[in-house]
């Protein structure tokens, strides 16, 4: 069930919907996931310096999926990697997030849920997001992603499905490859600023070469992402950061 | 400005949004347009017999476009071909529809407007639709349409742009080809039932052959659509319905 979803909108109810980001959520066969939400047109100085609405991810142990009926399911998340928590932003929802996903006849998935930015027993904020399934095998560039019917999105497939995890003294991070799309998050521990934040997003631009073209390479430690996934691992030096990434899933 | 848009949702405010159709709106270079809205999963007996939410179209003289600012414009329609009007459905909006289109940073276009189903000075119904631009050149099958950034959607292009119109004693209709996608509406005059309603939607499945694969071929007179657009017109017999279609735009 390699899956890639492009967000079509976010609505913080009762405000009208909008979409300022180019959000992709990628999920491996085994359910490791990353969602990166870069702003398409950062406007303020602050946005230009750090053009991200949000980013989060986790291993499959951090999400529980419960079937409701043939076209809806619950996903209950406790993100392992959460930008807002990392940056210690005030009034950030912390801990369990319950969401309900409903597949519309069109194939898009509507996600609804509630956040509790002021604490568990305080006022909640209801939200709606709409997700367009993307064909993870056919996408050869980010400007022309290929739509996929939602019914197929969770089919078993032969698409590339890889996840790497790191959690050492200095870093915590995750890299996920779903089909042709790679996303990664790497936080420097005990930093908790945008200086310690690293995001990466790549796409396999050529099927033959298995080389990624990167549309996001953000952060001082971006070179510590394991980017040579398709080359022999003998080349990784013992003792560097990259050698400490653990392959937690791979069908390569 | 050949453009193809896939609808992501419709919301009749204040109800929640949904999308039960696979709606494509296609627009030629010169602004002739058709929107077909087939239900993806018709449920009731009535829906199975006639699996369409709506269909409409018109020549460029039936729509006025007014720029508002760099990312929004008004479209004021008086549809020439309107399924609901044709079927004389009670409480159907008739005449001018004012809509506002806003391009979100993501590239999708939000359309908002009001309908007056009970007459001009009566209660109005506000709606919102969200449109995902589709690349009209890259789409080779309807299951895997290719997303396009909204900013490019109105670029001049070399995409196929064709419109044919018919208005004789028996029929009124329009066929529009925008890039690889063909859509058509044909109403039998003085019938005003679903028996007189014909819809067609095709896609060029092979670039070399210029042959259409049809996903919609609905109606008793569907063979009266001009489907041999890319073959020589000498083959059209004088006197039949097809010969009476007028080419009102073509860059073939």
Give the key terms:
mainly beta, homodimer, 2 domains, globular, ten-stranded antiparallel beta sheet, six-stranded antiparallel beta sheet, 252 residues, 16 strands, Lipocalin
Provide an overview of this structure.
Two copies of one chain form a homodimer. Chain A is mainly beta. Chain A folds into two domains: 3-152, Protein HRI1, N-terminal domain (Lipocalin), CATH 2.40.128; 161-250, Lipocalin, CATH 2.40.128.310. In chain A, 4% of the residues lie in helices and 44% in strands. Chain A contains two helices and 16 strands. Chain A has helices spanning 45-49, 83-86; strands spanning 3-12, 24-27, 33-38, 52-58, 63-69, 72-77, 81-82, 97-103, 109-115, 125-134, 161-167, 171-178, 181-188, 197-206, 211-218, 246-250. A ten-stranded antiparallel β-sheet of chain A has the order 5-6-8-9-10-1-2-3-4-7. Chain A is globular, with a radius of gyration of 18 Å. The first copy, chain A, starts with a strand and ends with a strand. Mean pLDDT of chain A is 90; it is low at 232-238. Chain A binds chain B through residues 6-9, 16-22, 39-41, 104-108, 110, 128, 130, 132, 134-135, 138, 143-149, and chain B through 6-9, 16-22, 39-41, 104-108, 110, 128, 130, 132, 134-135, 138, 143-149.
Q: What's the helical proportion of residues of chain A?
A: under 10%
**CATH class wording of the largest domain in chain A:** Mainly Beta
CATH architecture of the largest domain in chain A: Beta Barrel
| SSE run of chain A | EEEHEEEEHEEEEEEEEE
The class by helix and strand makeup of chain A works out as mainly beta
Global outline of chain A: globular
User: How many extended strands of chain A?
Assistant: 16
Poorly predicted runs of chain A are 232-238
Termini separation of chain A:
16 Å
Strand arrangement within the widest β-sheet of chain A reads 5-6-8-9-10-1-2-3-4-7
Give the rounded overall mean pLDDT of chain A: 90
Q: How many structural domains in the coordinates of chain A?
A: 2
Write out the CATH superfamily name of the largest domain in chain A.
Protein HRI1, N-terminal domain
Instruction: Give Rg of chain A in angstroms.
Output: 18 Å
Name the biggest interface.
A-B, 33 and 33 residues
Number of helices of chain A: 2
């Amino acid at each position: 069930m390699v899956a890639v979803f492009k967000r079509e909108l976010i609505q913080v109810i009762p405000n009208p919907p909008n979409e300022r980001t180019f959000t992709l959520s990628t999920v491996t066969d085994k359910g490791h996931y990353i969602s990166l939400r870069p702003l398409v047109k950062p406007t303020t100085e602050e946005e230009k310096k750090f053009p991200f609405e949000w980013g989060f991810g986790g291993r499959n142990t951090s999400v529980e999926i419960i079937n409701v009926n043939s076209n809806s399911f619950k996903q209950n998340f406790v993100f392992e990697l959460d930008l807002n928590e990392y940056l210690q932003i005030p009034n950030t929802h912390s801990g369990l997030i319950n969401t309900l996903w409903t597949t519309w006849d069109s194939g898009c998935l509507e996600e609804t849920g509630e956040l509790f930015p002021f604490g568990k027993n305080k006022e909640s904020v209801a939200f709606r997001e709409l997700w367009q399934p993307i064909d993870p095998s056919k996408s050869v560039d980010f400007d022309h992603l290929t739509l996929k019917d939602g019914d197929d999105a969770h089919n078993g497939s032969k698409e590339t499905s890889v996840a790497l995890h790191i959690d050492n003294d200095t870093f915590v991070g995750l890299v996920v490859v779903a089909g042709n799309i790679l996303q990664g998050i790497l936080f420097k521990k005990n930093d908790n600023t945008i200086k310690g934040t690293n995001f990466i997003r790549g796409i396999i631009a050529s099927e033959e070469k298995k080389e990624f073209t990167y549309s996001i390479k953000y952060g001082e430690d971006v070179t510590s992402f394991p980017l040579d996934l398709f080359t022999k691992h003998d080349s990784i030096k013992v003792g560097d950061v990259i050698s400490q990434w653990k392959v937690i899933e791979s069908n390569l």
